[in-house]
Design brief:
The chain contains 2 helices and 11 strands, in the order ββαββββββαβββ. By secondary structure, it is an alpha+beta fold.
Length: 187
Amino acid sequence: MTLNRLLVSWEGSEIVGPGLSTFFYSGSMTGIPAAVGTFFNAIKALVPAGETITIPSSGDTLDESTGELTGAWSASGGSSVATTGTANFAQGVGARIVWNTANVHLGRRVRGATFIVPLVASVYDAGGLVGTSAVSTLQTAADALVTATTSTWRIWSRPNDVGAFAVSAVTSALVKRNVSTLRSRRI
């Protein structure tokens, strides 16, 4: 079986090093880049102005059991999203969206995550948590993305030392008020 990898890049003066959000899908990519673009458009006011989030209309196809490249995919709907948040921000902190699945692998619930970092200072409340309005915006956008892509969206658990891997369907999203720290962006 193969998986299609969608690499969404983040660029701008607010980003230190290359930013990346990775999504995996099985089957047809028709409508997927457009749905991901809609998601990022819905949250662009939470992210400081000056960033560009690029959703490509092509990407790599991987062997799900090894992670080796097997080909490429192409679909319409790629776009760029210019962020519009108008306030100061804290470098390296923001929100985390957890992508839930119904699967358990190697004794653990399979989940994925997307970090939305940085966020403008105005989204935090007086206690330093992500404010309820921002959480609501993120949750609504995340729920819409799950609905639009749930038939093919997957979380891929990389093979470990003994070759165990898992591919799990995304079933829901959860955004909490806790602030998440981003230590690195893996490419």
